[in-house]
Amino acid sequence: MEYPLNIPLNTRRLLLNNNKITSLPALQLGFLSDLVYLDCQNNRIRELMDYTFIGVFKLIYLDLSSNNLTSISPFSFSVLSNLVQLNLSNNPHLLSIDIYTFANTSSLRYLDLRNTGLQTMDHDVLHHLEVLQTLYLSGNPWNCNCSFLDFAIHLLVSNMDYPGTLLYLSTSGKSELQRSEAPY
């Protein structure tokens, strides 16, 4: 299914979840300048191109969970300086995130990267997220290497809340960030 074309231009909340949509066209989205809430979960979106969200400057909430994302271009979110909550969870083919992906999302407070295919992450990915409060990372097949170690150290010294997330390093060289409930 393709992205619907006749969406009223003054739409503020758009629910496109569970529609088998394969792409988000920047041109059509660009006309929705009042959009603050976009739910695209459980579709078939494979990639986000640079400037996909070029006209939706007011967007605060974006849910792209449970899609088929394989790549996110470095400047996909570049105009989303008001974005507060981003959910990219349950995209098992998403193997990497460029260090510039979140460069202009300076208002981002909640980022969900659970159950993706991420194996490592450069700590510079989070460098621009100065107000990030909650980061979910569990369910990823993390590989223990120097880049990942820098990332883990960055998490440990940050003021960010990563609920119940613990770092486990094994002798096999694999590491995993998992959710673990507090005993009390």
UniProtKB/TrEMBL annotation:
InterPro entries: KCNMA1_auxiliary (IPR051432), Leu-rich_rpt (IPR001611), Leu-rich_rpt_typical-subtyp (IPR003591), LRR_dom_sf (IPR032675). It holds the Pfam family LRR_8. One of its GO terms (molecular function) is voltage-gated potassium channel activity. GO terms for cellular component: voltage-gated potassium channel complex. It is found in: Cell membrane. Transmembrane segments: none annotated. It is a single-pass membrane protein. It comes from the Eukaryota. The keyword Aminoacyl-tRNA synthetase does not apply. Keywords: Cell membrane, Disulfide bond, Ion channel, Ion transport, Leucine-rich repeat, Membrane, Repeat, Signal, Transmembrane, Transmembrane helix, Transport. The keyword Transmembrane applies. PANTHER family: GH08155P, LEUCINE-RICH REPEAT-CONTAINING PROTEIN 52. This is LRRCT domain-containing protein. It comes from Neotoma lepida.
